[in-house]
Amino acid sequence: MAADLAPVFERLKAILVKHAPRATVLHDTADHYYLNESAADQKGKAVFLAAAKIGAGKVAFHLMPVYAKPELLADISPALKKRMQGKSCFNFSSVDDVLLKELEALTKKAMNR
Q1: Which of 1, 19, 93, 100 has the most CB atoms in a 10 Å sphere around its CB?
Q2: What residues does each domain of the chain span?
Q3: Between the CA of residue 68 and those of 8, 72, 92, what are the distances in Å?
């Protein structure tokens, strides 16, 4: 794990930890935090909810509710939108307090859908 990414991971993990009581924590390690929905889908399978994971040169923050409900992204700033890769992943390589605060608000909105 890149030591310089640890603070980024910890900040992103902290956003998700606030929502852990309504979810099932699948992974909680020094470089990977992963939440599933508490309830399974109609076929009894676990449903991925959100995760933060250290990768090569970045920390990925996955927020699946925005994949299912893209209208949640309607009000995000261009700067946060620029951090998106795909439909539900945001990448960070450094701590940006303004963007992390915005991501925290988006996560709260998405989790309370």
Answers
A1: 100
A2: 3-111
A3: 26, 9, 22
CA 43 to chain centre: 25
Q: CA–CA separation, 105 vs 101, rounded Å?
A: 6
Q: Which residue has the higher pLDDT, 48 or 12?
A: 12
Q: CB–CB of 65/49 below 8 Å? A: yes
Per-residue CA distances from 72 to 3, 53, 94 (Å): 33, 22, 24
> Which fold would CATH assign to domain 3-111?
Aspartate Aminotransferase, domain 1 (3.90.1150)
pLDDT of residue 112: 86
The answer to whether the Cα torsion of 113, 69, 61, 42 is positive or negative is positive
Give yes or no for a contact between 24 and 53, defined as CB atoms under 8 angstroms apart: no
| Extended strands (E) in the chain | 23-28, 32-37, 48-54, 59-63, 84-85, 89-92
